[in-house]
Amino acid sequence: MAFLEIKNLHVALEDGTEIVKGVDLSVDLNEKHAIMGPNGSGKSTLAYALMGHPAYEITEGEILLDGVNIVEAGADERAQKGLFLAFQYPHAIPGVTVTNFLRSAINAIRKARNGGQDDPIPVKEFRTEILAAMERLKVPRELASRYLNDGFSGGEKKRVEILQMALLQPKIAILDETDSGLDIDALRIVANGVNELVSAEMGALVITHYQRILNYVTPDHVHVFVGGKIVASGGQELAHKLEAEGYDAFIPKEAEVAA
Amino acid sequence: MTASETDVVKGIRSEYQYGFSNSDEAENYFFKSGRGLSHELVEAISEHKNEPDWMRKFRHKSLDYFLARPLPTWGGNVAEIDFDNIYYYIKPTEKQASKWEDLPADILDTWDKLGIPEAEKKYLAGVGAQYESEVVYHKLQADLEAQGVLFLDMDSGLREHEDIVKQYMGTIIPQNDNKFAALNSAVWSGGSFIYVPPGVRIELPLQAYFRINAENMGQFERTLIIVDEDAYVHYVEGCTAPIYTTDSLHSAVVEIIVKPGGRCRYTTIQNWSQNVYNLVTKRAVAYENATMEWVDGNLGSKLTMKYPAIWLMGEGAHGEVLSIAFAGEGQHQDAGGKCVHVAPNTTSVITSKSISKDGGRASYRGLLEVAKGAHGSKSKVVCDALILDEDSRSDTYPYIRIDENQVDIGHEATVSKIGEEQLFYLMSRGIPEHEAAAMIVSGFVEPITKELPLEYAVEMNRLIQLQMEGSVG
Asked: What global pTM score does this model have?
């Protein structure tokens, strides 16, 4: 069984509108999956629902993380169990420095993994790790003492998302439109960060509108997402087909089949 | 005793950790007045303290003012205060101690639980500790004493430096300034008396700690601080009380004079239990190029009405009020600040951050006044309110009076709700909901906590954390 197993997942808004209409997907450690879909197809809703956003209700199906159904778990618990979401639009937390935030997050996860007992990261170890990760991801040092995402440029926000991913060491990382708003250099840095982390310890699910990021993060599996469902799955070649032909090729035919 | 104990236990909120009381010791006081307020009581207090005649008369006159004035009808609801049910004067020990171990064991135990002796060792230049009506412990570092710094409790100040007290007391806050200042002037006891000689800069803070222990206690400390030319002092006060089912009253008066080039910072971390009415008048005057700063943290009490004021009397004077108010269930924080520009080229900043949750109500009430002739004055008022849920409330009452054209005045106010998206973002990193909410709140007040000495910033964040625990989700 893969580390993340999504089975017949249906997700609705608070008003009952169904956005995700039955998704089956398995993502294992050491795997890179890409979900590609047009705007409004429900990709981001899928990402939020996997992470446990309270505005999205899972009406049917299961999300198994390491064999355990996490549908009822809060976002904090999901993160503690090894799930991570790199946000498309990371939120600013004024007054809370990147360093303090990272320390709190790391310690929250360490505590959960230590059976609920405090197990704070030693100061020196934290400092060494954060500096090394910042260096690797080319995150300017001064960002460490700035307030989280407060006044950050688009590129800075995305790099800090990847920095968080590197430090929190999740098992499965979901990247929601991480390529949007990045220039080519930033994209390369971010993609390298993802590539380095995907290993026997981590798998990744890259959600994107464009094929561009997939030139740098070469996926093992590509899934086409239209109308709240995966309508096609394949290898890297599927991404190139999409890039060449657009989503139209998938929409009418597959939508009819779905209906 | 068992009945009242049950009531005490019922009243305990899990978040408030200073709610313990020395109930067994309650009757061990050296002197305890009867309930209620009268000229006989005022006479007894003055007699007990062996005060000069002018002070005795000052008290009686103040009581007349208090009785003649109506209760304020603005701000919070003070109509339920039962003035006849309050103990106005309780003297816990016969003598003041200058060594902690000289205090009675139960009182020492209270201070130990509050961590005051420990704090003194680590980072304070002097400590005064008031228990009920009297300062039971007082100590100033010897080198400061040698430099002529005076740091005494107010009663000792009056005994040992009567000329200074007589010269200044009631000049900044007249005895008839408002009903509660009049009450304080009539029955005051304890508080701090500080004089910093010219050019003396006290690097470590002086701290006074105020503790109400008895039920239905009224604590009326009186503080007078004189910072002479080019001198500096940072004075910190902390306040706690046990939780009772009936109310106590804390009504202080604080008068501060900052002479030319001097600087005074006055930091309050008020954490009264939720049965305390906290009705305090604080006012400072700042002369040429002097700086006065109020850092005012209000987390506890049932109702707080407090608006630290600065009168900028000399050219180039600077005033700052940083105010944090946290109103939880059953609490009303009516707080803010006042800056009055009397002299030209004076500057002021008022920054207010309020948080309300669980039906609490936080109001900013402030005054900015620029008198005719105070040209070239600059002032900025920023009030930000954070509302944590639908049941809670925030109000802003900014009063601005400008009688001079050549001024630069700015006012900004924001009201925000704790964002579901911010919470989700932090939680998605493994941080539990209440911790995430506390983090957002700590961040919100960070512009003020970063002004506090490290130990107090840590304390403030811890108090916020406690206030937030179990309240969200």
From this structure: 0.82
